[in-house]
Fold these 4 entries.
Entry 1:
Amino acid sequence: MTDPGERGIPAHVHDEAGRWLARRQGEVAADVERAFAAWRDADPRHRRAYDEAERHWRDSLMLGRSDIGRTRKLGRAPFLMQRSTHVGAAGLGLAVVLGLVSAGLVQPGGPFALVSPAEAAVYRTGVGEIRTVRLADGSVVTLDTATLVRVTFAAGSRRLVLERGRARFRVAADSRRPFVVAVPGGEVVARDAVFDVSVTEQPARVAAIGGPVDLRSSGPDPAAGAQRLAAGQQAMLGGSAAPKPISRTEARWVSGMLGLDATPLGDVVAAINRYNDTQVRLADERLAGLSVTGAFRARDPQEFARAIAATFDLDADRSSEGQITLSSRHSATVSPSRK
């Protein structure tokens, strides 16, 4: 179902908005700005598509800007494969992530979609989908791949249940009704905040992107598991460990990218497999310890496998249908500390 406000915007307008957003991230010449202004003002749908694209991109940068973001060379950002301090993606091909972020998130019928308000509803995404839902109170929920959220609003409450997957919640302020997200093991409570909740692992992980978020455990001693996260902090629900800082790259999943910061290859493979029917496998469990930093398009397992193989000198076997197997070309022991 598509938001009525978006129904009149053709897909090619979203594509154009994404291209304009990408062009305006560098040092923009005056004639480019004039051309952009003319395009934006030519049709109200152009302005709406561009504003929507820009909002999604801003969301992905809320925790701060990466080196590329600080230099505003965002057109170079979609695929980075860092090896220590060096970029190892040379020759692997770059694509403009802004086109994916800005156009994909709002294109009806694509892997990303915007759906309409509801007081009580069930929203779900299939493998590879990321969907943005605008709720009746003005809150916005972005569902990651293979995610299911149930929504029930009443006069005195705003309650959602995250049954599987991961979601980002942008909460509209409401002094009368707290915004509650229930998950196995407890619930997350906020009034005016932006936060991620993931139940892809247990216990659930919560990341406060903006504004305070309260965690409430449903364990035998709820008070012991109660915790407040400030903006920029993340924690496991019901855990006793102190909150940790949120990785700026990890918080950008709403853009359709997998952001990684010294992440074990085994975890990266598990993450990218959640988005794709084609599965990546590691032939040697020792490869799982290799450390990966950078960003990958979540829906491109072929490019991911090619980049990992080139960076770590591995073979990528595509002979089995629906599977890519990464294996070492050498019999020597693989060092997990290698980057």
Entry 2:
Amino acid sequence: MREFRCSSLKIRKEERVFVDIAFTIRRSLALVGESGSGKSLTLKALLGMLPKGFEAHLACESDFALERGRTVAYVPQNPFTALSPLTTIKDQWIVAEEKAPEMMEQVGLEKALIDRFPPELSGGQLQRVVIAMALSSEPKLLLLDEPTTALDAELRSVIVELLLDLQRELGFKMLFVTHDISTAAKLCSDITVIREGRVMESGKTEKVLGNPVSPYTSALIEANFANREFRS
């Protein structure tokens, strides 16, 4: 599969432009920035789920069309709120339900857990379930909205390794939206840093984090490893 290139993504509401960026996903890209930088709007634009009043103009090139639930799948931030607590996991499996048991095993879960209710599972198990649901449609592009934020450090590492293993096995591309630079460094080959809907710098993750050009990127890195969220 060739790279997914977005030569222009503009998101506006009335006369104001909230996001005006370009990016390329070769294998896995981390989109990093502080809260309010435009990360989540970017994901919603790719999913065709922008809030009312917003409109997106995309110029993307790839060997697949953007189709939510088919070529593009989404993993939300919080596994505890992603699923209804009153419905079994099996009955919430909308896409490719017949693949549910297979996908449960593929993410390291027992098939029997599919008959449980979400509150009966741990946070790590629930995140695996959400990932399994997303991948059951065999997407070309997986969009991840800070999926490790609600997990502790040990579980974050487990989920990162799981995603890397699944990517090697299934061949999908990843766009990982986060303010957690340490996790982005482990998961993604490339990184794009944005601020107020504009690109500050972009490149190979190791190069950008090892020798940042933008003072903003340097501040993000410093704040991240001091275990606090950066706000300008």
Entry 3:
Amino acid sequence: MVDELPSEFLRYLAKSAPNAGQRLPSIPELADQMGISVGKLREQLEVARTLGLIEVRPKTGIRTKDYSFTPALHVSLLYALSIDPDSFEHYGVLRNHIEAAFWHEAAALLTTQDEEHLQQLVTTAWEKLQGRPIQIPHQEHRELHLSIFKRLDNPFVLGLLEAYWDAYEAVGLNVYADYAYLCEVWEYHERMVQAILDGDLDSGYQALVEHTGLLQKLSELARRASNVISARSV
């Protein structure tokens, strides 16, 4: 399996330094060990950095990072959105199915502290929506959804969900949204969280599924936001 990786550095990393936080030899030493030029190694390091596998800093050198599926998805998804903005709608459908499929398993893993955090997110979101001036509770929106699923021991599910929010921000929905839509969204969020607190995960699931029915409205907002951003850049 390791031998199928597409570069000498990725093969080295998988075999010799799979643990997060591990410091690697200097670039000249690595190039010598792998039998490739420093220039070629630098190119391969940049690929690994983009994939989120390593970090390169002037004083600490090259260190490995915990595996995350998100960085690779982030790059691929941003490219897809660049060539076809409708990709957001397609990815949104995928994300909705993932959340529905893992709802019961994820919600059952939440701790009392997690539940309190969800409650606080809902409270803060309503304070922002009902305040003067009104604020868009985007960070609360993102954090609420990801917090519900964070206890899953599955980096691929978490990566797919995190990448959705990167796309959400890329199309501008974190800074542009319809007020009535946001209020409707947070009414569903409140129902979902209350169902978790009550231990009624089936009711929470129903609220989640109904909540995903807003996707068409969300996609229209995404297209509208994209038009606004394009007009501002002209």
Entry 4:
Amino acid sequence: MDAVRVALLREVLAGTEWPGATRRFAGALRSSVLPHGGGLLLVGTAEYEPWHLAAHLVDEAAWSGTPELTPTLVRHGARPGDPAHLAVGLGRIEAARRGETLLVVAPGAAGAPLLERVYDARRAGATVLALDSGDRELHAMAHEALAVPARPGLDAGLDLDTVQHLVSAATGENSLPVPRGRRRFTDRLSRLADRLTAPPPARW
């Protein structure tokens, strides 16, 4: 464990809105997925694919006993020859229907092609959530949104990657009532700090 990283993360979070904000967003994500079981679609932008968040949501789904939180990663550059879990293209968003949830992660502008598909998914009845740096058009389409101002790294404040870790941890934490002896969200910062210092996970 990187004790300095843990201490820094605790210092950054102390007295801020982020623990509450990420838990509220995670609660919205969880509540949109669990009652319907329609599935969770996760998509980034043409320049950014949220591999890390996808992998951690898989972990949290297993840890919390809620397989409905396991996402389908939708890729801009998916090819027919890719492994099945990596071959889901943007057409899957076009096929989204009521009861499904679409989580969009966008560190920059989402771009017109993606926004058009998100709009169509919402019109078809899908629940749309956005985790981004403040894209106004995307926020206007989202049922729930969490904006993370662009920053150069953890030492200057929370960035989008760090907030994704907080959201995934809170999603699993909030999935079940807290039994006696179970670690609370803030007590899991040490595990989160380990994640932040670990290399990116393999592409499943």
